[in-house]
Design goal:
The structure is a homodimer of 223-residue chains. With 223 residues, chain A is an alpha+beta fold. Chain A folds into two domains: 11-149, Nucleoside Triphosphate Pyrophosphohydrolase (Alpha-Beta Complex); 153-213, Arc Repressor Mutant, subunit A (Orthogonal Bundle). Chain A is built from five helices and nine strands. In chain A, strands 1, 2, 3, 4, 5, 6 and 7 form a seven-stranded mixed β-sheet that branches. Chain A has a two-stranded antiparallel ribbon with strand order 8-9. In chain A, strand 1 (11-22) and strand 2 form a beta hairpin. Chain A is elongated, with a radius of gyration of 19 Å. The A-B interface holds A 1-2, 4, 6, 8-13, 15, 33-35, 43, 46-56, 76, 78-79, 81-83, 86, 89-92, 94, 149 and B 1-2, 4, 6, 8-13, 15, 33-35, 43, 46-56, 76, 78-79, 81-83, 86, 89-92, 94, 149. The structure holds a DNA duplex (27 and 27 nucleotides).
DNA sequence: ACAAAAGTGTTGCCAGTACACCCATGA
DNA sequence: TCATGGGTGTACTGGCAACACTTTTGT
């Protein structure tokens, strides 16, 4: 391309599907829309890309401001550019997935915001605006691919976790059941986690061993 | 997001890494830049996204106009939004890979264009403008991931091919050597190709069998 | 003691890998 | 007949899947 002197500017919105694990459940963060149209429906967090920031900077700044999360882990997902994805407006959506561990969610910074937000189980997404349902679906597909081909879940478990916990997260995202014994064998043999020596006591049943992800280990093709 | 009444519009350029296989070599199509800055350097085909077309429509229309290719196979790659990827201009690049078989390249439609274009071996990319070298690198990485996890190469071989040909393409893209016997076994056992009964005669050495991809077969995790 | 949940071991199978010889053709 | 490149089989290994019983805790 030789020439950028075009009048054809576009509005770009960045949309982010933020996932966390809370009490063993995989959740996605949505905001409630407070104005017409689609008043009362839910939507992905996101905002208009400004000319002095990259997509990633834009999202980080936005989630800090609106959610109080600093240092959100981000990966790019897809671009949605269909002309009528928003009626009567041309808005190109660049989408990302974000991962944040539940402890960081608890420790989030104070925000002054009137946004109504809620974490939804990924198998129970509410009514959403425009094409956000499709975007959420693609984001979950992307996450699925990533937990198979990388150890991205390390982000969601920065400290100790039990193997049954980890397994349940895989099962929710992959939408399938896994064999406990084979799951253990696989993860332990992969060499990317280590036993902390501690146990997860205080629950009913036998206490589970606590593991942690090793540092500097880039996993490949887990499933 | 509630409000699109922003003054913060952006220029979006779509850039496409078009790959083909010609005489056994994997190639990418680049254009020569004819104006300063970077006059004489090479660049990815692409143009400014207009408000009445989606990313995919934009690319299809553009490659038909500038290259004469109709029905290019396209997949989305990454977005490049660093503020200074182009000095003094804010242009967001949405990138795709495209695949076209060599027969369709030969049969391309007549175009009236003064563009100087050339197919480059993917292991011998010339000097390129701005961040196009990085984009090309990421596109090849993406292609690598796709030929491992899908049978996308079917697009490059719509008609008969020999297994040694196919293997050489894998070797170039994965940048590794593969065992001939194991490669054959794998592809034949996968059940996604079939023997045409014909042979590739007229070359030195024993003629190779000609295979074709079966219809409606979505391969998974090939390597 | 019982209920609840976690930990463990064996076997069969299939896919991946390493490896060497024979075959069909053109020159 | 020779040079060139293509086709084939075997044995080993490691990962994956299927499967049932024992262990540790709280109540």
């Amino acid at each position: 391309m030789d020439n950028y002197n075009s009048e054809e500017n576009s509005i770009i919105e960045s949309l982010i599907s933020i996932f966390t694990v809370n009490k063993g459940e995989v959740k996605i963060l949505l905001f409630r829309k407070k104005t017409e149209p689609y008043k009362g429906y839910w939507m992905l967090p996101g905002n208009v890309l400004k000319s002095n920031e990259s997509l990633e900077e834009n999202i980080n700044e936005y989630v800090l401001l609106k959610c109080g999360f600093s240092e959100l882990y981000i990966e790019q997902c897809l671009v949605f550019s269909e002309i009528n994805r928003i009626p009567d407006k041309r808005v190109v959506a660049t989408t990302c997935i974000g991962l944040i561990d539940s402890k960081s969610v608890e420790l989030k910074q104070e925000i002054s915001s009137t946004i109504e937000s809620e974490w939804f189980n990924i198998s129970a997404i509410p009514k959403t605006i425009y094409d956000h349902a499709e975007i959420i679906g693609k984001s979950i597909d992307y996450l699925k691919e990533r937990i198979i081909n990388s150890n991205i879940l390390k982000i969601l478990f920065p400290s100790d976790f039990t193997l049954p916990e980890l397994q349940k997260v895989y099962e929710q995202i992959l939408d399938t059941e896994l064999d406990r014994r084979n799951f253990r064998k696989k993860f332990i043999n992969l060499g990317l986690i280590e036993d902390t020596g501690y146990k997860n006591e205080g629950y009913t049943g036998r206490p589970a061993k606590l593991y942690r992800f090793k540092e500097n280990f880039e996993g490949k093709n887990l499933f």
